[in-house]
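Hi there, hope your week has been kind to you so far. No rush at all, and the record is pasted right below.
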Amino acid sequence: MSDNLPRRQVLRTAGALGLGAAAAGALTSGAQAAPDKVTAMSSHHGHGKLEIRKDPFGTTPEGVAVDVYTFTNGRTTISMLTWGATIQRVETPDRRGRVENISLGFDNLPDYAALSPYFGATVGRYGNRIAKGKFTLDGHNYQIPVNNGENALHGGTIGFDKRVWSAKIVKSDKAVGVAFTYVSPDGEMGFPGELTSTVTYTLDKQDNLRIDYHATVAGKPTVLNLTNHVYFNLAGEGTGSIDGHVLELKAAKYTPVDAGLIPTGELAPVAGTPFDFNQPTAIGKRIRNDHPQLVIGRGYDHNFVLSGKPDHDGLRFAARFWEPTEGRTVTVHTSQPGAQFYSGNFLDGTFQGIGNKAYRQGDAFAFETQHFPDSPNQPTFPSTVLRPGQTFTSTTIYTFGTK
């Protein structure tokens, strides 16, 4: 594949949006500087020293500056963009101490704007799918722009992943990170109410990346499902298939879907199916099984009903992923009732990520903690309604390690 392909795609997309080449090019300002600075920063400090820095990453065609915040504990380093409150890089050591970036992403803003399938993004106002983009709340009908066949996915055509969030550094003697805030006006993407969301990402000295979600709505009630869509390959981004990754997922049930990947409303048992990961199992072991749900999703793209017991903080063990060759692990705890396990089925190699590496089908996984898809149209699912005067909070922790 030509190294120039992503740029040509950016220019084609810019043209379709009515932007000139100069406007598309304006997105690139400062984009190449950050990755080298990340490496330099993480290589000079011992484990336990919490540091953070801010650098320019680019400028939108509207002239809005986008920054990259890089924070480290001397062992794990996280880079995040104000564009979509996006996790751009996660650099962690393998069992031999060799550090690699294990999250999929881009090294420039135009590719995020034009090509990204939600790489690392904070998605909303409603993560996952809403059937036909329609729901009714308190007798009022609402329509979200459809962008996934006949359905709305991750908040519609211009979701939170395509907004520039405000950012504030958060630092203590125990953790360091960034609090991102975005105010979504009443009616944006068809959703009612003015929604103020703050999502705080912090890294502590024990390699825990903690994500705290906080949201309130004014004026009208709304529906809300915030999550992060980071894609991982624990052998290193762009290194190939995740079929050999071993997954332990604590869920007795999952939500089967129709041909449009909308839940049928059933909570089906995983026992005796390829969806049972209660015992650690390689992701690729059964992914080519002829189970109808795997055929529909072209692999795993399903919401699991988490069954772990919450601890005193309201968090439950959800899943652990392990890459046996390099030894990296990521363990997930969450206060959310569900998680979407996605095996990268729709990556197709048509664009290149960081380091000019093509991402192909099955080259990464996502594990999006969440309320269930299409909950506004599924009365038996946990409610996603948020009303004025209420506060939505949830927490998810990704813990990086080796074994």
The chain is about 10% helix and 35% strand. The first helix runs from residue 5 to 16. Residues 1-46 have pLDDT under 50 and may be disordered.
